[in-house]
Amino acid sequence: AATVSISQLLGLAPFLELVYKRFTAPITEELFFRGFFQPTFGKVINNQFIGVLITAILFSAFHLVAYSGSLEKISGLFVFSLIISLGNKLVGGSLGFGIGLHMVYNTLLS
Hints:
This protein is mainly alpha-helical.
C-alpha cells in the first residue's frame, strides 16, 4: 500500500488553495449568498431590492477577515456583490452568471 507523507501533502497546498479560490469558493458562496440568502430576504421583507442590499452587506462582512478589515476592499466587494445580483437578475435568475463572474474575479486576484 502506498503511503503519503506530510511533505507530499504540503506540496499540494498551493494547488488546493488555487482550486478553492478559483472554483470551490465562488460556487459555494454564490449558492449560499445569491441562491439562498438573497431570495429568502427578498421574500421575507417582500422587497427584492432590500434583499439584494442585505445580501451584499453580508457578503462583504463575510470577507472582512480575509481582507484584514480594509474598508476599500470591503467596499469594492459590496459593489461587486451588487453587480453579481444585477447580472443574475438580467439573465433570468440563473446563478451561473454570478458563479462565472466570481470565478473570473477570484482568478484575477490570485
